[in-house]
Queue: 4 jobs
Job 1
Amino acid sequence: MNISALKRELDGMKIEDNPAIAQQKSRDFYWYSPVLKRQLENVTADLVVSPKNQAEVVRVLAACHRLGIPVTPRGAGTGNYGQAMPLSGGVVLSLAEMSEITTIASGRVICGPGAILADIDRATRTHSGQELRLHPSTYNTASIGGFIAGGSGGVGSINFGGLRDFGNVIRLRVVTMEAEPKVLDLTGEDLHKVTHAYGTNGIIVEVEMPLTASYDWIDVIVGFDSFMGAARYGNALGCQDGLLTKLITPIAAPVPQDYFKRHQRFFRSGQSICLVMVAPHSLDAFLAFTRREGGEVVMNAASMSEEEKKGLPPTFELAWNHTTLRALRVDPAMTYLQSLYPFPNQLALVEKMDAMFPGEVFSHLEFVRFDGNITCFGLPLVKFTTEERLDEIIRLHEENGCPIFNPHRYTLEEGGMKQTDDIQLAFKREADPQGLLNPGKMIAWENPDYDYRSGKTFLFKGLQRAG
Ligand SMILES: Cc1cc2nc3c(=O)[nH]c(=O)nc-3n(C[C@H](O)[C@H](O)[C@H](O)COP(=O)(O)OP(=O)(O)OC[C@H]3O[C@@H](n4cnc5c(N)ncnc54)[C@H](O)[C@@H]3O)c2cc1C
């Protein structure tokens, strides 16, 4: 790989070749998974390039195309599956500096891919009382481009569904990796070409996102004697069309007691909980509903003093993948899975899976609205023993009708639906004919005949260079 020639071509741009910094910028939260930790530990880029604008992105992609150097985009590096890790080395393209918010209008915001989600909301709230429809629990650190290319949903999904649902992204401007890179504006059905594609088929250089009315969301935690009590309550709350919530998260004991260090004082021993974010105008009705359902409000931020709230992270930083992070901080032997409990049997499936692995798997649900129905995802915590046992737990979920989006794999297909995404593959043929964008992440490109049902793990040949 002719990195010296590339450096000459990029003269005047911000580049970083210090090996320690290049390695740091080559990592994400892959270490959440003991499997990925083992596989990806040695992955590192040769160069980190930080373009300031679209013209510089075009320049980098044209130069790397000419020299045959791989390019892996990076937002804030909070992805979980080695998504932003350059398996074949080359360039890490940091979009962090392209963070300008250029337009805020009724129902929409236009900004650079590097804009941090919380910064976007700060601007849109001040400007016009609006906020993003959904955000990951990494709201305070993650970029909008990284969320669109690597994320799936999060806080707000109880109202709006997932990122790839129609209408949750308005427009993306994407640069292709060709001799003369093209700049394309994608809308409507075409958005599926690049959303959740890990940057394997284009670099997002501008985003246009829909906005909704903003509120000073109130954090509430409701306690239950049993986990199924919390799960049934979460489901019923999600179905209350008149109550505006943004987060509904049942979590089984003893996770809150053992891992939510700053909140421990609120929980009785053995109590399972449901985390909720509720709009201020819904609070009274929400409390009445909770009383009727037999929930015990153990924390209500609306009735706490500033002194009492001091040091407490927002509730969403106990939810989604922050639950796993908090467990890992206390017990490095913990890991997790991502499951779906399909509508309409979600509660029966939750009950069955919750009972199946006592002391080994701890239930954590996130309620969402999908295609008009309330159902839930699971991000259960798993006490890790061996990779074989982890695979067995996954198999048992799938055999019982709960699909697993395996967070212990670095490819799009194994982490997703275990099938080729023909739309993304076709777009990669157009937009990255040499296969230089984030290599190794799309199996359909690397090995079109790969059998996803083989039970084996796909091992990208290009990874060997780093290993
Ligand atoms: C504690 C924790 C909690 C999390 N909670 C959630 C959650 O609630 N919901 C959720 O969906 N995810 C969650 N995640 C995963 C991750 O935080 C989100 O997906 C986040 O939005 C990623 O943003 P980022 O800027 O860090 O992206 P990165 O990690 O930098 O990148 C993510 C992917 O997008 C690609 N990419 C980045 N920028 C671009 C670009 N401009 N063009 C093309 N491709 C690009 C990268 O190559 C990579 O494949 C969580 C992760 C952690 C560690």
Job 2
Amino acid sequence: MPPTDSLRIMLRLGLLVLCCLYGVLADTPAHCLFEDIKGTWTFQETERSGDNTLNCDTLGPIVHTKNFTLSFPNTAMDELGNEGTWTMIWNQGFEVNINERSYFAFSYYEGDFTSSTSYCDRTFNGWSRDKTMRNWSCYGAQKNTPVRARKSQKLTTPAEKLAQKYKNDEKMINDINASQKSWTAKAYPEIEKYTVAEMLNRGGGPGSVLPYPPSPAPASEELKAKISLLPDNFDWRNVEGVNYIAPVRDQGSCGSCYTFASMGQVEARLRIATKNQRQDVLSPQDAVSCSVLSQGCAGGFNFLIAGRYAQDQGLVAEECNAYDATDSACDTDTSCARTYVSDYSYLGGYYGACNEELMLQALIELGPLSVSYQVYDDFYNYNGGIYHHTEFKNDFNPFEMVNHAVLLVGYGVEPSTGEKFWTVKNSWGDTWGESGYFRIRRGTNECSIESMAVDITAIP
Ligand SMILES: *[C@@H]1O[C@H](CO)[C@@H](O)[C@H](O)[C@H]1NC(C)=O
Ligand SMILES: *[C@@H]1O[C@H](CO)[C@@H](O)[C@H](O)[C@H]1NC(C)=O
Ligand SMILES: *[C@@H]1O[C@H](CO)[C@@H](O)[C@H](O)[C@H]1NC(C)=O
């Protein structure tokens, strides 16, 4: 059973409380690495006659058997020598694009976040369709050489600690303020309404077991030369006086940051493409409740929502499925028009190819990028300035590092110190940080923010 469906069934059965108290569900527990996935695979595919409502819970009769060889860094090749591309999505699964078709499936695992075994040489049932989004099929993939099963254990925070109320730590805030001048922290009394588990959800959902994404790839000399000609400061909220960014929102206690980052990216790209004639506010709830490519309030990925879901199924306006911050059943108004993207990719072409220079170029030439980064406990109390992770810890709450998705809208250089920064739209309401935004150190892959930016092309 695909992970999303098993999760949805758990949720329907009312097991949500159980899973969130244990804080063990976020993204999927699969932990598969590039080395596990590269190699030759056999894809077994059903008849190519479905549409985007195709359900792949069960595979059905196999009509096509294809062998694809996936090699470094992103080349896919079939038995006939036809070439395509592929990419990992974090440690969760992989997408293959070849012979005018696109395939995506989650890597296979058993267990949950506290204790799981990943079988990286096979996938859950996935979805395949042609480049024009027609002729859908289901498939399952098996690698032709076995990969040793990987056991993952996670030291999870005890349930009673996750259930306790989150508390601001004045000492940590003072220490941050006193120890450095780049950024300031402050107490947010309003976040004490959340439990520790809910705060972890706000930060991205309890992290998957991949501790760090890949380091940024080196930039070419040619790209560096191009970048040197860009302005020192740029911000899509003020391009010669014009704002292309939709208002900041608040994700509440649901681990849905990736849907807010994704909607924010498509909203901004629509505004840019139409010179603000279209000012959509899109529905994160639709992606939370209806997408088989996400884990709802337990996490997901920009690549799969701003990218693949927006291409496969399209996005709807907020009023077609108003945000409720829960794993509610999918009840999107089917009469609503859907907005699609025609293209999506990790910057540089695949997961692992990103860097600051590519991000600068794409940000300014194409528009806001959805990104993700590691959230430590000092970040929740960010007040203003240019964030970098400090060593200070909140002594009241148990620590779990989580991975948060957000929208990059600008960059600059602080004149007094020369410190370079990114400007980023968060989804924690407009009273948090710098009117809902934060700045974070640029050029040093701070908290891995330069490791996996996603680009899309929205169709206005
Ligand atoms: C594509 O789908 C249609 C039905 O939707 C079917 O008639 C056709 O044979 C399919 N094409 C391929 C190549 O399977
Ligand atoms: C695909 O790979 C499998 C396993 O190595 C092999 O048995 C099969 O003949 C291959 N099929 C094609 C079409 O190359
Ligand atoms: C830290 O500095 C910020 C900004 O100057 C201020 O708002 C906040 O109250 C300070 N907090 C503490 C505990 O010193």
Job 3
Amino acid sequence: MSRPHVVIIGSGFGGLFAAQRLRKTDVDITLIARTTHHLFQPMLYQVATGIVSEGEIAPATRVILRKQRNVQVMLGDVTEIDLKNGTVTSRLLERFTTTPYDKLIIAAGADQSYFGNDHFAEYAPGMKTIDDALELRGRILGAFEQAELSTDPAERERLLTFVVIGAGPTGVELAGQIAEMSDKTLKDAFRNIDATLARVILLDAAPAVLPPFGEKLGKKAAARLEKMGVEIQLGAMVVDLDYDSLTVKEKDGTTRRIESQCKVWSAGVQASPLGKQLAEQSGVELDRAGRVKVGPDLSIPGHPDVFVVGDMMAVDGVPGVAQGAIQGGRYAADAIKAELSKGQTPEQRKPFSYYDKGSMATISRFSAVMQVPIPGTKKKFETEGYFAWLGWLALHLVYLVGFRNRLNTLINWFFAFTTRGRSQLAVTEQQVYARTALGHLSEIEHSSVDDVEGELAKGTATEEKKPETEAG
Ligand SMILES: Cc1cc2nc3c(=O)[nH]c(=O)nc-3n(C[C@H](O)[C@H](O)[C@H](O)COP(=O)(O)OP(=O)(O)OC[C@H]3O[C@@H](n4cnc5c(N)ncnc54)[C@H](O)[C@@H]3O)c2cc1C
């Protein structure tokens, strides 16, 4: 008899930790993901700003799992989940694979949300993938290069104005690093421009910086950023974007334009569209961000063998952070283990409970904010500055996968934080133009499909007419 087959979608925190938790379980696992790597998203901003290389935060999933003999890793974009027949269909180029499952753990994460303005992505990419981070690195450094060549003061100003939209942890980290890069790393590196005069704007429609960290830490983070020269504009909602500028609506309804070529979006998230398929097939509800309202055991109603974890799940009190995904992935794996080894029924499962280990965000080198719950109370220990920053470094090293990655990262950090140097400032043309090129490619694809369909339509019309003519 073959062993139960567990299919896991996603190689992020939820998917990888679920697979590892099933290491000693008598099951066969297929882990399907659309990238070959496990991405450590919390350090993407360091790739974008040249501190670490992409390989350090994105080790190959099949290499991480090579010693775990019960896992098979499969590259593919899951296009369909069929709950009725218990299958998952994935696509790699033109090859479609249908994989049956006995148990399914869906951990496909979330994408950037532009709140219905998806065309903003062309001018203000988000930061969710390695491609995004490398493209951003190209855009940031490319803006400096263009400014060096420009003789028009207005154009130079536009090129040296960097706008980060969204003042959550990612926006704060990115704004801080762009400011630090222009002030320290690129200082004296150009002959016609002074890189230290670059303007970095962090803006948000909300009235506060780092809202999840509370008012006190938010204000401290804002003060630290302002000290570094970052301009903070709150209560400002982006209503339009184009290649050279963005339009912002103030609370009083007035609008203004900011001239800026390099813009970054870190304002919202939207769960994987796979959630919509689950909703259509099972009737499970989705929240406003498209996250699946799972039951207390993280399964979907009527399908106790299908779990949704991580950024895709909507569970009260569980934030969309790495720990939420890790704990969710492990919980689902434990439920499968308990059923197979102890015969536990879905009704006997203890509800998932999230253990909040605290949250952190870096602002610049030597400065971070940290919030840790005090056990047995509803209070939180809060701190900011150097010790919080050291805590951030230590924790992120612990969760980086692979000894070599940790060592390389440590060396790069030492170099970046003790000198003003950054070792990863290489940019390739592909990184800068890839999004535009892919956009053109997809336009060509669509137009040729339209042409073919148009031709077919004409042909069909002619064929349909033919008999008439003949008959006539
Ligand atoms: C820039 C940034 C900074 C962050 N900083 C922090 C931080 O400091 N601390 C913190 O705790 N959290 C942070 N987070 C949040 C944290 O990274 C996420 O909460 C966590 O990664 C969620 O894990 P997940 O497994 O649900 O999804 P992900 O880690 O996003 O993994 C999703 C996986 O699914 C795959 N996938 C998606 N769709 C498909 C499909 N159709 N077919 C096949 N595979 C698919 C993806 O390739 C990926 O492997 C940050 C996130 C970002 C983007």
Job 4
Amino acid sequence: MKNKEQQGKGASSYLKLFCAQLDLLNFVAHALVFGIGLLIGITLTFFIKNFSFINFQIQQFSLPSYTLKPPPPPFSPISSNLSLSISNNNQTKNASHYPVGLVFDSGQKNTSSSPPKDNQTTPSSDSSIRVTNFTRIGLSEFLKPPMAMHDMTDEELLWRASMVPMIQKLPFKQTPKVAFMFLTKGPVLLAPLWERFFKGNEGLYSIYVHSHPSFNETVPESSVFHDRNIPSKEVRWGENSMIEAERRLLANALLDFSNQRFVLLSEACIPLFNFSTIYTYLMNSTSTFVEAYDQPGEVGRGRFKPKMRPQIRLSQWRKGSQWFQIDRFLSLQIVSDHLYFPVFMKYCKPNCYSDEHYLPTFVSIKFWKRNSNRTLTWVDWSRGGAHPSRYYRTDVTVEFLNKLRFGRTCEYNGHTTNICHLFARKFTTHALDRLLRFAPKLMQFN
Ligand SMILES: *[C@@H]1O[C@H](CO)[C@@H](O)[C@H](O)[C@H]1NC(C)=O
Ligand SMILES: *[C@@H]1O[C@H](CO)[C@@H](O)[C@H](O)[C@H]1NC(C)=O
Ligand SMILES: *[C@@H]1O[C@H](CO)[C@@H](O)[C@H](O)[C@H]1NC(C)=O
Ligand SMILES: *[C@@H]1O[C@H](CO)[C@@H](O)[C@H](O)[C@H]1NC(C)=O
Ligand SMILES: *[C@@H]1O[C@H](CO)[C@@H](O)[C@H](O)[C@H]1NC(C)=O
Ligand SMILES: *[C@@H]1O[C@H](CO)[C@@H](O)[C@H](O)[C@H]1NC(C)=O
Ligand SMILES: *[C@@H]1O[C@H](CO)[C@@H](O)[C@H](O)[C@H]1NC(C)=O
Ligand SMILES: *[C@@H]1O[C@H](CO)[C@@H](O)[C@H](O)[C@H]1NC(C)=O
Ligand SMILES: *[C@@H]1O[C@H](CO)[C@@H](O)[C@H](O)[C@H]1NC(C)=O
Ligand SMILES: *[C@@H]1O[C@H](CO)[C@@H](O)[C@H](O)[C@H]1NC(C)=O
């Protein structure tokens, strides 16, 4: 009985052993299947790289050390959908070769993508995440001048342009530039002459054009005026819209931190010297050039409006040409003026000619110390009337140009000089032929 029992026990233990072996076999079989699966997975990983969706998922579950690891929080709420986002991205191919960073797409770069994501808790559309290689987050993007064309309102533009760094010393190298700002009706009429003038001086100037908003002619890509139009509004001669356009030009030019001098030009202006002479004259000057004088009589003091008091008094009222050459400091003051300009907007209505009075008056009240009270743009009012003389084809001779170049004496940085004008107006397109013939040689263009 006992024996039977023992035998029975023995049999049952054999059975148990057998079962255990069976379990082991079973386990080995499972492990084998798993191993093969794993192998297939790894193989797939290497062979179907293009199909990075699968690629990523396999990597995520079986080869954690090999994969690109999405960093845990703060992005974790969205990381479960990361694979989709990555699969859309072309950079994945190389993603595992160098460090990967996650960047929130601000939504500004691509307006067609989903709305900007300020709400991190919403795990929605995956287009908000992009994988990029870690480029140094340096100053270069910040310092890069924006496109001339943008969609800021005037108010937004002026606010942005008015920003000034509190630290004066630059932590980078800067080549100062002159901003040439053209206030025109349509195209820059004398563009071929200006093209010759600018040639070979790239990096030392920037160009901004404010033309009538309806002007839609395209400028060839080879031109220095290509893509230099800023968002504009209609300008009426002698009215406040002219000052608004000047402020718009200044503000746009201020967005480029390397612009240090600012020159306002019309479509009828020409240069009187080569680029290097003009550049040095402007950069080296210790003064600004805003023409300002006190003129008795109807066309001077007569245009003052008593309602402008107390901000502006008659004794402070000045007149001058609108074509200025100024520095960055004064440009910043002009775009930020919220005291005097509103007074002009309100009370300087037609027959007041704010373009001839706003800047001369504003600069003379607050910044007269560094202002030369003269302009560098030559013009001839001697024939009288509301407009200065215009020059046509036959007016352009070497003698005439030299008279404009050296015909006067004035003060520059405390010394007397016979270079008092760097620009001249008003030249018509009829004069262009002869200007192109004489000017480059006479003025020693590059
Ligand atoms: C992943 O994104 C899809 C839409 O692309 C969405 O329907 C799904 O809920 C998301 N999954 C998670 C876990 O957020
Ligand atoms: C990936 O980028 C290359 C150029 O970098 C482009 O030619 C190709 O079409 C892109 N592929 C996809 C799927 O976006
Ligand atoms: C990917 O990396 C290889 C070398 O690792 C490089 O030659 C190739 O240009 C890179 N492709 C992209 C899109 O960055
Ligand atoms: C913006 O997105 C569209 C489609 O989503 C794409 O065709 C276009 O290339 C994107 N533009 C930029 C600058 O990423
Ligand atoms: C963020 O999401 C929460 C709920 O998910 C919502 O109550 C809140 O209004 C959202 N905030 C913004 C700024 O969208
Ligand atoms: C990283 O991206 C930048 C542009 O986003 C590119 O110029 C640079 O070559 C990339 N670096 C590598 C190693 O691909
Ligand atoms: C430019 O504007 C004129 C009207 O001012 C219009 O007739 C013409 O079609 C426009 N041209 C282009 C290229 O938009
Ligand atoms: C510019 O003109 C001056 C004379 O006015 C001359 O000395 C100088 O060499 C010229 N500059 C260039 C770059 O030709
Ligand atoms: C710039 O001005 C300084 C004095 O203010 C003078 O010493 C220097 O020669 C000038 N440089 C040029 C290129 O005119
Ligand atoms: C410019 O005019 C102001 C008066 O408006 C005067 O105080 C200043 O001395 C003048 N500057 C020069 C350089 O003549």
